[in-house]
Amino acid sequence: MSLIEMKVPTIGESVTEVTLSQWLKNDGDYVELDEPICEFESDKATLEFPAEGAGILKHVAAEGDDLEIGALVAKIDTSAEAPNGTREKKQEETKTAPSEPEKSTEKAAAEKESHAAGHPSPAAAKLMRENDLEAGDIEGTGKDGRITKADVEKAVSSQSGETKKETSSEPAEKAAQEKPAPVSHVQFSRESSRKKMSRMRRTIAKRLVSAKNSTAMLTTFNEVDLTEVMSLRKKYQDRFVEKYGIKLGFMSIFSKACAHVLMEMPEVNAQLDDDALIYHDYVDISIAISTPNGLVVPPVHNVESLQFHEIEYKIKELAEKARDGKLTLEEMQGGTFTITNGGVFGSMMSTPILNEPQSAILGMHTIQQRPMAIDGEVKIRPMMYLALSYDHRVIDGSSSVTFLVKVKKLLEDPITLFLGI
Q1: Which of 19, 30, 139, 218 is packed most tightly, with the most Cβ within 10 A?
Q2: Does 35 score more than 50 pLDDT?
Q3: Of 300, 307, 267, which is closest to residue 286 (Cα–Cα)?
């Protein structure tokens, strides 16, 4: 018997432990070389673990186990022969080998196939379990046929529509004859359940507590009149979409405004390293994105040098990857400043917590129509509260207020932002 020991590989410099989130192959299955056998959840991303040889798979670790780098995950018996069906299929393929032109065509088609086909992303798998769906019931539209969260949501919506149609087609007389089922109301329930936190949720918890306990964090507030921003978007949105194929959103405008001011005020873009301050001549803005597994903050690099449509494309790409669990470790690293938008969930005001080792974070909130005094007259304006949380060890109170006022002025007169003045 020849065994290959599958151990947790080195994933990144800062990653010392992972969680085995789910097995993609059952214990005793025959696996091929490089075929994904399980998924690891690290502090920052979910990664597939490929087989290092062909043979019979033997599980060693269980789903939900926390494993250190180098820990044994599984064993593969490479001396075991492939099942008859697999062997016969290979023999048949050998007998009916195509000619060279056909082979090149089939090879190109085969390259499109992947072991990821039919496998759900972590977010999709969670949604499938909640709705009792099987992978065979869903057609994957993700990369290499992978099942995405959107595919599952579509299947759930389709299933709900069919159920509703069947229910509505029942004869009214039959529905009237049936007696309503007794409704059971459970009062004063004392039940509770215990569920292990995901690795990402545990990491988020540790970092938030660390940020609160190890920084001198304060928050300053201001409000911004978004009349001109909304007018600009309304006036040029169609032409923007026609040229770039993507909408001009609030996030690119806010990101660009912050980048513009951060280049003027490098102390807000700095970070503390022991007794030294590190200043950056670039602006990498981390965008807070809510996912089924928790909040992630991948950065958009060099925002100061990007055009608005380029920022929109990058934010869209990162958001889709984050929600499908496809962000790489490289895409999660870095960032000199963070923007979080609680307004999409209806938040009117909050005090965002720092994303260490960064020294500042801007909180956006919901837009509300409020009466404002404009040149001695009361007018209804779309107003948003802005919150800037900052590390007082790095940023003085006057600098934080000045930063927020400068951002406010750019947003209230966005033409100066587009002109770079």
Answers
A1: 19
A2: yes
A3: 300
